């Protein structure tokens, strides 16, 4: 594969995916262009060996399946998540202060707050409208220009700002939206954007799920362009890599990509990893192609393997003491196996050994991350999926800096490295 072409596809995917709903829409478009057939959960499914299909839930989670031409004995599963920390609008968002219309926000996920100040912010998400004939419809909205900003307070008025003062998201982070605006202006503007983007006039906006996003486009950074800087690398980078691997695989083996919403807030939802989405899909597939019944389902799950892909903490050159001395992954040093004895990651020695062998086969370097013994660590969909399904799982990811910031940094070569490793996984005949 051409590394430059791969990175251009990644940058375009990031540009088109300001929200989980947009990310799933972008992934679905690529799947359909590659011949995947869309399934509806409300319909009866008719599946055939060798088919390529996908299904979505809540329009923010997706499962794509490459069915084997022969017996459905095992699946090579790749997991990721579509959501990222950010600022979401409250239902009654409009508020006024000092002659400005501002928008009240909730923080979504464990986010770094300070980087959101003084950034050009766009607005995106989904909303639901009622047509004059009473019909309800859900729509995606992406205001792809700067419409808001959260201005910092001048240092002259807050001399202690650089001394670690806490930020109050309720009182200090309402974005400035419209000078002289009133509360009714928000609905007027939303209706105008709906008309502009969807050609719909006269609709009533019933509800919305909207959030702000950074308008600075993703870019290659560094003297030799060795870095990628973008919003939402955690975890759209893994969604992209998993999709690339599935599409580039040889199609001979059973393979699956699942990208769940709501990982950043615990995964406990109908479309999150702790919910029934993946299990529902697998049971329906097993019913048609795997023999059906609970015993057949358990045999399928235990013969399968899951690689949960979520970015890993790279060694930061300004904060090397934040890593265990023997486990500091480098950008452009290859995918990272994530290990935690307390099961915050699902990796065990058997699943890690399989991944190391995949990397050897693909000619890819591999690294390991373990947090310091005196620090906690995050988690992923890996342990949750393993708990819900019982599938043998490991956690891996591309290394990155500035996780949960408005703009994150990863290595260009790691995109190709992890893609090659996952292609080898999708093509692997023996998962034992």
Summarize the model shown.
By secondary structure, the chain is an alpha/beta fold. The protein has helices spanning 3-15, 20-33, 169-172, 183-198, 233-248, 277-289, 294-303, 349-362, 381-389, 412-427, and strands spanning 37-39, 52-57, 61-66, 76-81, 86-97, 100-108, 121-130, 136-148, 176-179, 204-214, 219-221, 227-230, 255-260, 305-309, 312-313, 336-338, 367-369, 393-397, 399-401, 408-411.
Tell me what you see in this structure.
Keywords: Aminopeptidase, Hydrolase, Metal-binding, Metalloprotease, Protease, Zinc. Its EC number is 3.4.11.-. InterPro entries: Peptidase_M18 (IPR001948), Peptidase_M18_dom2 (IPR023358). The protein is of the alpha/beta class. The chain has 2 domains: 3-84 and 231-427, Zn peptidases (Aminopeptidase), CATH 3.40.630; 86-214, Roll (Aminopeptidase i, Domain 2), CATH 2.30.250. Helices cover 29% and strands 27% of the residues. It contains 10 helices and 20 strands. The strands form 3 sheets. The chain has a 9-stranded mixed beta sheet, with helices on both faces. Helix 5 packs across helix 10 and helix 8 (349-362) crosses helix 10 (412-427). The longest helix has 16 residues, at 183-198. The model has no long low-confidence stretch (mean pLDDT 96).
Top keywords for this entry?
single chain, 432 residues, alpha/beta, Aminopeptidase, Aminopeptidase i, Domain 2, 2 domains, six-stranded antiparallel β-sheet, 20 strands, 29% helix, globular, aminopeptidase activity, aminopeptidase, zinc
């Amino acid at each position: 594969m051409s590394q430059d072409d791969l990175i251009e596809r990644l940058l375009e995917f990031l540009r088109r995916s300001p929200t989980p709903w947009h990310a799933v829409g972008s992934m679905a478009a690529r799947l359909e262009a590659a011949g995947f057939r869309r399934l509806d959960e409300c319909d009866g499914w008719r599946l055939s060996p060798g088919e390529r299909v996908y299904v979505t839930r809540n329009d923010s989670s997706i499962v794509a399946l490459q069915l084997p031409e022969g017996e459905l004995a095992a699946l090579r599963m790749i997991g990721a998540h579509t959501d990222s920390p950010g600022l979401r609008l409250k239902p009654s968002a409009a508020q006024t202060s000092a002659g400005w219309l501002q928008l009240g926000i909730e923080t979504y996920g464990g986010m770094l707050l300070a980087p959101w100040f003084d950034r050009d912010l766009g607005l995106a998400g989904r909303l639901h409208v009622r047509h004059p004939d009473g019909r309800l419809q859900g729509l995606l909205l992406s205001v792809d220009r700067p419409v808001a900003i959260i201005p910092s307070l001048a240092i002259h008025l807050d001399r202690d700002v650089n001394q670690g003062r806490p930020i109050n998201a309720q009182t200090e982070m309402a974005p400035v939206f419209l000078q002289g605006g009133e509360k009714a202006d928000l609905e007027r503007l939303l209706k105008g954007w709906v008309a502009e983007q969807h050609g719909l006039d006269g609709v009533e906006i019933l509800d919305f799920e909207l959030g702000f996003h950074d308008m600075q486009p993703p870019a290659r950074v560094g003297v030799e362009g060795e870095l990628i800087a973008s919003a939402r690398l955690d975890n759209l980078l893994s969604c992209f890599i998993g999709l690339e691997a599935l599409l580039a695989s040889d199609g001979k083996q059973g393979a699956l990509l699942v990208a769940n919403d709501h990982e950043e807030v615990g995964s406990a939802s109908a479309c999150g990893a702790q919910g029934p989405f993946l299990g529902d899909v697998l049971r329906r597939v097993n019913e048609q192609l795997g023999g059906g019944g609970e015993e057949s389902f358990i045999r399928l799950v235990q013969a399968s393997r899951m690689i949960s892909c979520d970015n890993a903490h790279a060694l930061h050159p300004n904060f090397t003491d934040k890593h265990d001395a023997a486990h500091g992954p480098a950008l452009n040093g290859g995918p990272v196996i994530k290990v935690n004895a307390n099961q915050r990651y699902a990796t065990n020695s058997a699943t890690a050994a399989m991944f190391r062998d995949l990397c050897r086969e693909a000619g890819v370097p591999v690294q390991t991350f373990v947090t310091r013994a005196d620090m906690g660590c995050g988690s992923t969909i890996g342990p949750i999926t393993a708990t819900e399904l019982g599938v043998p799982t490991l956690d891996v990811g591309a290394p990155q800096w500035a996780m949960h910031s408005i703009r994150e940094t990863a290595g260009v070569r790691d995109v190709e490295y992890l893609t090659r490793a996952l292609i080898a996984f999708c093509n692997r005949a023996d998962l034992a």
